[in-house]
Amino acid sequence: MKLALISDLHANREAFSAVLEHARAHGAGRFALLGDLVGYGGDPAWVVDQVRELVQQGAIAVMGNHDSAIVTGPLPTMREDARDAILWTRSQLDAAQLAFLAALPMHREADDCLFVHANAFDPQGFEYIQGRLEAMRSLHATQCRYTFCGHMHEPKLYHLSGTGKAGEFVPSPGVEIPLLPNRQWLVIPGSCGQPRDGNPAACYALFDMTTGLLSYQRVPYDVDAAAARVRHCGLNETVAERLAQRLLQGE
């Protein structure tokens, strides 16, 4: 069975729709949503409803820092654009949608897999995995062979051998990577709704749980339409324009 790993949707309806269609066309039978369903994008209610429906069908979903901020309020450390988007997003969600976000777990374990938004060593702290040091700290914090996480908006792959040797890899889209069973693996699929590597195409990954093959995917979508939704959603015009440009430029 193929598992679609989708993270950092950020209320981007166009990107999420394209990724769902692509994943299903490539054999995905199950979905894991790795947090930050909302924030930045112009369609939070639609995205939350889609994720809630997937969860009802058996998908895994965990809480991201933007999802948490919707429930508890923006953190003081959040940038102005993120804070404004959080406050606007909260006004767009009904009680049931807010309750769904509030009930999301910080992490889930299933079939030797850990699903978490930021890291395994402090899921609620939302510390970034910016390199090998944080990745190894995360891998040492779990007994699971596979850790799937988001938060970082660029695709990356880390591994830890039985002898303690660490490695990291920047994957190429569409290339199957065998996740060897004698290692631990940390998979960051990149952002579906707001990639930040200079390429606006949506990111996600497919993991074949039978063969152990992982592939990172890039999915072009109507980024102009997504940017237009942000511009006209009701956010402050200056903030909305900055967020729209980030989508268009993949940053």
Structural commentary:
This is Metallophosphoesterase family protein. Belongs to the metallophosphoesterase superfamily. YfcE family. It holds the Pfam family Metallophos_2. The chain contains 8 helices and 12 strands. The chain is of the alpha/beta class and 251 residues long. The chain has a single domain (2-249), classed as Metallo-dependent phosphatases (Purple Acid Phosphatase, chain A, domain 2). β1, α1 (13-25) and β2 (28-33) form a beta-alpha-beta unit. The longest helix is centred in the N-terminal third of the chain and has 13 residues, at 13-25. 46% of the residues are buried. The model has no long low-confidence stretch (mean pLDDT 94).
Detail the topology: elements first, then pairings.
Blueprint: E1 2-6, H1 13-25, E2 28-33, H2 44-56, E3 60-61, H3 65-72, H4 80-92, H5 95-103, E4 107-110, E5 113-116, H6 132-140, E6 146-149, E7 156-161, E8 166-169, E9 176-178, E10 183-188, E11 202-208, E12 213-219, H7 223-231, H8 237-249
Parallel strand pairs: 1-2, 2-3, 5-6, 6-10
Antiparallel strand pairs: 1-11, 4-5, 7-8, 7-10, 9-12, 11-12
Helix pairs in contact: 3-4, 3-5, 4-8, 7-8
